[in-house]
Design a protein that fits this description.
- The chain has about 240 residues and is an alpha+beta fold.
- It folds into 2 domains: about 90 residues, Ribosomal Protein L25, Chain P, CATH 2.40.240.10; about 110 residues, Ribosomal protein L25, C-terminal domain (RNA Polymerase Alpha Subunit, Chain A, domain 2, Beta Complex).
- It contains 5 helices and 13 strands.
- The strands form 3 sheets. A 6-stranded mixed beta barrel has the order 1-3-2-6-5-4.
- A hairpin with a 6-residue loop joins strand 5 and strand 6.
- The chain is elongated, with a radius of gyration of 20 Å.
- It starts with 5 loop residues before the first strand and ends in a 33-residue tail after the last helix.
């Protein structure tokens, strides 16, 4: 874990269509739920909230303060305006320090440009960008890093089995396929042929994100038909919360 992430939230009264006025004032509506507590409608300044959302993602715990009460939570849902690209709503799910929670963490390739493969003109292409792990909040890693510096030829690859999990962290799937390929080495010509066969520029960044299940914005959070919006799912946890 990195530095402690903290955010001050205020309870809010505005709901539904009135949330537009709230956003015009530079505030982000949110909801905090989980456990036996009744969901709380909250709000916070846009700038501070955006910083926390970028830093925490959906894997790092956030220390919330609501009317003087402190809660530990993870971000379960982030709603971004598809046109303005502005933060519209955040759903926080409260957790406990001793809870073992399951969440996705980014897989980060380090040493890009330093491998012998890249130095001779080959291309290292990442196929998996996130993996599910489980751990207590204090043990959750910000990312799973893998060096590609040792890659030399198109016969080389990086698999899930190459990941060294931090102490206290396990793969969420007890039968995780360790042979699953995270990154391959390609000849540029072979990669282009693969793209052409797939119907064009299949490796365009936006398309790769869509194929790998990147978040898509919700239609609206105004309804809040359930905590975090209508597309909200409860996070998985190894222990059974009272709200399940």
């Amino acid at each position: 874990m990195g530095d402690k992430l903290s955010l001050q939230l205020d309870k809010r009264e505005l709901q539904g269509k009135k949330l537009k006025k709230l956003r015009e004032q530079g505030l982000v509506p949110s909801v905090v739920y989980g456990g036996q507590d009744v969901p709380v409608s909250t709000q916070s300044p846009m700038v501070e909230t955006l910083k926390i959302a970028h830093a925490a993602g959906k894997h790092s715990p956030v220390h919330l303060t609501i009317d003087g009460k402190k809660k530990l939570a993870i971000i379960k849902d982030i709603d971004i305006d598809p046109v303005r690209h502005e933060l519209r709503h955040v759903a926080f799910h409260t957790i406990k320090q001793n809870d073992v929670i399951t969440t996705e963490v980014p897989v980060v390739l380090v040493g890009q440009g330093e491998s012998e493969a890249e130095k001779v003109g080959l291309v290292v292409l990442q196929a998996i960008e996130h993996l599910e792990v489980k751990a207590k909040p204090a043990d959750l890693p910000e990312s799973l890093e893998l060096s590609i510096a040792h890659l030399v030829s198109t016969e080389d690859k990086i698999t899930v089995g190459d990941i060294k999990l931090p102490t206290g962290v396990e793969f969420a799937d007890m039968e995780q396929d360790l042979d699953l390929v995270i990154a391959n080495v390609y000849e540029p010509s072979a990669l282009q042929a693969k793209n052409d066969a797939a119907g064009g520029d299949a490796e365009d960044e936006a398309e790769v994100e869509a194929e790998n299940g990147a978040d898509t914005p919700q239609d609206t959070q105004d309804g809040e038909s359930k905590p975090g919006g209508k597309l909200q799912d409860e996070p998985k946890q190894s222990n059974v919360d009272a709200n399940k």
